[in-house]
Amino acid sequence: xxxxxxxxxxxxxxxxxxxxxxxxxxxxxxxxxxxxxxxxxxxxxxxxxxxxxxxxxxxxxxxxxxxxxxxxxxxxxxxxxxxxxxxxxxxxxxxxxxxxxxxxxxxxxxxxxxxxxxxxxxxxxxxxxxxxxxxxx
Length: 137
Prior knowledge:
By secondary structure, the protein is mainly α. Helices cover 63% and strands 0% of the residues. It has helices at residues 3-10, 22-47, 55-67, 75-93, 99-108, 126-135. Helix 2 packs antiparallel against helix 3 and helix 2 (22-47) runs parallel beside helix 4. It is extended and about 60 Å long.
């Protein structure tokens, strides 16, 4: 499926404003997950991600992002998160992001880019240790 075909198929995917119940909101989450998984091959092709990740790993990243919000029970909040997710998916499929954004956000992950600040003050003078403590987060 080419970029245009994927963008055209996602053009009509919308999230309705109000879920009547938690069960309905969760059903919409599953539908969003299916739509996202169907878009993964297109995303892999658009951003040339075959050399850094496979489809299974991207699917796991999407799944973990959805599971991160599994504790939410308010249907309105779930609908809002679905709207944000749908917008993110549209931006990705329409190539509104650059390759390094996708790699940083979904391949490496948010925790993968964090530097270890504790190792900077090993073997340094007391002056530098105090300097690091006072000027870093």
